[in-house]
Structures are given as structure tokens and as C-alpha cells.
Amino acid sequence: MANIENLTGKILEEAREKQKEIIASANLEGEKILSKKLQEAEEIKKVILDKAKEESKSRKERIISNALLKVRNEKLAVKQKVMDEVFEKALEELCNMNSDAFKNYFKESILNLDITGDEVVILNEPNKKVIEQDFINEINNMLKARGKKDGLTISSEVGNFKGGYILEKNGVEINNTFEALISSKKDELEYEVANLLFN
């Protein structure tokens, strides 16, 4: 019986030792797992924070870029408005030239055009009062002296434009209205005007 008790005691003692080893091993394994999971959590946290910082920086740059673009577009719009006003003022000045200046312009431009000399001149209401038939006859004599026809006439039609004139022959028009002249020169002159105004 003492042997059985010794044997039982020995078995219990070994079981307790084994239990301690298993618990110690489990604790050690648990600490390793916990440490690994904490390390993984730290890495995930770092990735999330880095990504958030990057997104924040990117968003900030986009906001600044959009604001700069908006300011640039507004400046361009203001510059374009000023330039449009300059061209509008130039058109006004042309339309307000006195009678003698308009007659000189009309005569010089007609004589410098490649025309046959039998076109019809369309004028607006104010210029119809300035360019009379006697003046057209004078220009016809000059055209004839240059070997062209002397059949330039004034149309009964009144043009719906601010200034200048239109020459018409067989349905084909040469548009020498001030609006058309300014428009045709605008692209050519915009760069120069912008440099004068804004540099």
C-alpha cells in the first residue's frame, strides 16, 4: 500500500511538474503571440497614419492648386475684360472720327482696294450724310485715271453697323466696317495690347 501511495504521489508530482511546464510554455507562447500582435498593430497603425498624412498633404496641395488656378482664371478674365474694353474704345474712336477724317479714310481705302470700280457702297445712316454723290464722283474719276471703271455708286440700303462701309458687287461683299476691321486685327494685336497694359 505504501508503494501505491508512493507511486500515486510520484505520478501526482510528475503531473504537477508537467502542469507547471505546460503553463510556463503556454505563458511564454502567449507572450510571444501578444508581442507579435502588438508589433503587427503598431505596423498597421504606422501605415494608417502615414497614409492619412499623405492623403492630408495631397488634399492640401489640391486645395492650394485649385485656389491658384481659380485666382489665375479670375486674373485672366479681368485682363480679357480690360482688353475687350480697349478694343471697344478703339471702335468708338473710329466711329467718332470727324467728317473730313472719315472722307480721307474712305477715299484712301477705296483707292487701295483691288476692285473693278463698279461696286455699290453700303453706308450706315451717319456716314450716308458724309459721303455724298459728288464725293463718289471724285473717287470715280480717280479710279478711271488708274484704269478702272468709274461706276462706284451709293446703295439706297442703310447698313446696320457702327462705322466704315461695305462694298458689294454681284452678291459678294468686301466688309470694311470698323467692327470687321477691329475684329480682324484683334488676334494680331491682343499680345501687343496685353504687353502694353500688363507689363
Radius of gyration: 47 Å
Question: What structural class results from the helix and strand content?
Answer: alpha+beta
Label the CATH architecture of the domain at 92-198.
Answer: 2-Layer Sandwich
Whole-number mean pLDDT: 85
* Low-confidence segments: none
Query: Number of DSSP strands?
Result: 4
How do the helices and strands follow one another from N- to C-terminus?
A: HHEHHEEEH
Here the CATH topology of the domain at 92-198 equals hypothetical protein PF0899 fold
In what range is the share of β-strand residues? 5-15%
CATH class of the domain at 92-198: Alpha Beta
Which word captures the global form?
A: rod-shaped
How helix-rich are the residues, as a percent range?
Answer: over 70%
Major beta sheet, specifics?
Answer: 4 strands, mixed
CATH H level of the domain at 92-198: which superfamily?
Answer: ATP synthase, E subunit, C-terminal
Q: Given the structure, what is the number of helices?
A: 5
Question: How far is it from the N-terminal to the C-terminal residue, by CA?
Answer: 117 Å
Lateral arrangement of strands in the main beta sheet: 2-1-3-4
Describe the fold and architecture.
The chain is of the alpha+beta class. It has a domain at 92-198: hypothetical protein PF0899 fold, CATH 3.30.2320. It has five helices and four strands, in the order H-H-E-H-H-E-E-E-H. A four-stranded mixed sheet has the order 2-1-3-4. Helix 2 (99-112) packs parallel to helix 4. The longest helix is centred in the N-terminal third of the chain and has 94 residues, at 2-95. It starts with a helix and ends with a helix. The model has no long low-confidence stretch (mean pLDDT 85).
